[in-house]
Design goal:
Length: 350
C-alpha cells in the first residue's frame, strides 16, 4: 500500500485534498499530519475519519525528529506539503512565525524525506504546494504570471513561501530529491477559515457587521474554487513532470470591491433579504502595507500538458460557496466562537 503524507490536512485546502485522495484511491494509505493550530479543524474530515485507509497524526513540521519518526513509522512514499501559515495580515504582525513554519518547517520535511529515502528515490515524491504571491504584483495591463516569472515577494508571507520554494528546488538540484511545485491563485469554497475575505464577509453579512475593504477596493485577485485546485494537485501529483512547476489559476480576475458587491447580493438573496440591502455595511479602511495591486495566473501549461481546466465560473462558485456556509452555520459559529478548539484540546493536549 503506497503511503501518502499530506501535511496541513486538517486545514482548508488540505482537508479537501485528504477527502479526495482517501475516497478516490482506496489503495493508498493517506496520513494526515496537522499541528491543529487555529486553522486546523478535524471536523472538516468527519466524513472520512473512519475510512480504513486514513490516519491522523498530530504533529509539527518544525519538529525535525518527529518528522523523521513519522517517515519511519509509516514508511512514507510521497509527501504533499500544504502545512503553512497563510494569512498575509498575520504575517505582517508576526513575521517570525511565518519564517519558522513556512521556511524551517519545509526544510525539516525535506531533510526528513531525504534521509528516509536515502537516495532510493524510485517511486518517491515531494510535492510542494505554494502560492502565486511569490511572483509579486502585476499592473492592470493584461499580463499574467507564468512558471518562469521572476520571484518578487512583497509581504512576509510571500517571502516565506518564496524561500520554501527555493529550498525545494535546491534539494532537487543538490540531492536529486524528486520534487514538484505548484503555485495557485486565491482559493475559495467550503471549510475556509473565516479570517479570509469570502467566509468572513458572508459571516459579517449574516450578523450585519461591517465589511472592511482595503483602500478603494481596486486590488485585483484571480479566484480558484478549492475543489478545482485539489483536482489539479491530483493531476500534477500523478502525471506532472518531476522537477517542474505548474501554475494553477481560475481565470477569474475580480476587483475586490466588485467581489464584495457580488457577495452582498448573493448572500442577501439567500438570506431572504432585499438583494443589495447589506451594501451599507461596506466600509473602506486604510490599505494593507505592501498590498499588491493585481495577481493573475496563466494556467496554460497545466491545461496543455495535463488537460486541467476550472469547472466553475466564479458567479456559480460563489453561489455554491455562500449556500454551503449558510447551510452549515453551526460549523461557522463553532469556528468563529473558538468552540471547535475545546474538543481537540481535551483529546490532544492532555
Amino acid at each position: 500500500m503506497k503511503t501518502i503524507l499530506i501535511t496541513g490536512g486538517a486545514g482548508f485546502i488540505g482537508s479537501h485534498l485528504v477527502r479526495l485522495m482517501v475516497n478516490k484511491y482506496p489503495g493508498y494509505r493517506v496520513v494526515n499530519l496537522d499541528k491543529l493550530t487555529y486553522a486546523g479543524n478535524l471536523a472538516n474530515l468527519k466524513d472520512v475519519e473512519d475510512k480504513p485507509n486514513y490516519r491522523f497524526v498530530k504533529g509539527d513540521i518544525c519538529d525535525f525528529e518527529q518528522m523523521r519518526q513519522v517517515f519511519a513509522d509509516y514508511g512514507v512514499d510521497a509527501v504533499i506539503h500544504l502545512a503553512a501559515e497563510s494569512h498575509v495580515d498575520r504575517s505582517i504582525k508576526d513575521p517570525f512565525a511565518f519564517a519558522r513554519t513556512n521556511v524551517m518547517g519545509t526544510l525539516a520535511l525535506l531533510q526528513a524525506a531525504r534521509l528516509a529515502w536515502d537516495g532510493r528515490f524510485e517511486g518517491k515524491l515531494f510535492y510542494h504546494v505554494s502560492t502565486d504571491e511569490v511572483y509579486g504584483a502585476l499592473e492592470n495591463d493584461g499580463s499574467f504570471f507564468v512558471e518562469t516569472t521572476r520571484y518578487n515577494p512583497h509581504s512576509p508571507y510571500s517571502a516565506s513561501k518564496a524561500s520554501s520554494d527555493h529550498f525545494v528546488r535546491a534539494y532537487h538540484d543538490t540531492y536529486g530529491l524528486p520534487v514538484k511545485i505548484s503555485n495557485c491563485s486565491n482559493n475559495y469554497g467550503p471549510y475556509q477559515f473565516p479570517e479570509k475575505l469570502i467566509p468572513l464577509f458572508i459571516n459579517n453579512i449574516r450578523h450585519n457587521k461591517s465589511l472592511p475593504v482595503y483602500g478603494t477596493g481596486e486590488n485585483v485577485r484571480d479566484w480558484l474554487y478549492v475543489e478545482d485546485h485539489v483536482r489539479a494537485i491530483d493531476l500534477i501529483f500523478h502525471q506532472g513532470k518531476v522537477g517542474d512547476t505548474y501554475n494553477i489559476g481560475g481565470f477569474n480576475e475580480w476587483r475586490n470591491i466588485d467581489l464584495v458587491r457580488l457577495l452582498v447580493g448573493v448572500t442577501d438573496r439567500l438570506l431572504g433579504r432585499a438583494e443589495g440591502a447589506s451594501s451599507c455595511l461596506i466600509t473602506f479602511v486604510r490599505d494593507r502595507a505592501g498590498h499588491d495591486l493585481r495577481y493573475a495566473i496563466d494556467s496554460s501549461k497545466l491545461h496543455r500538458e495535463l488537460g486541467w481546466s476550472p469547472s466553475l465560473q466564479f458567479e456559480e462558485g460563489i453561489e455554491k460557496t455562500v449556500r454551503w456556509y449558510l447551510d452549515h452555520q453551526d460549523w461557522l459559529d463553532n469556528v468563529t466562537s473558538g468552540d471547535y478548539l475545546k474538543y481537540y484540546e481535551e483529546m490532544y493536549h492532555k
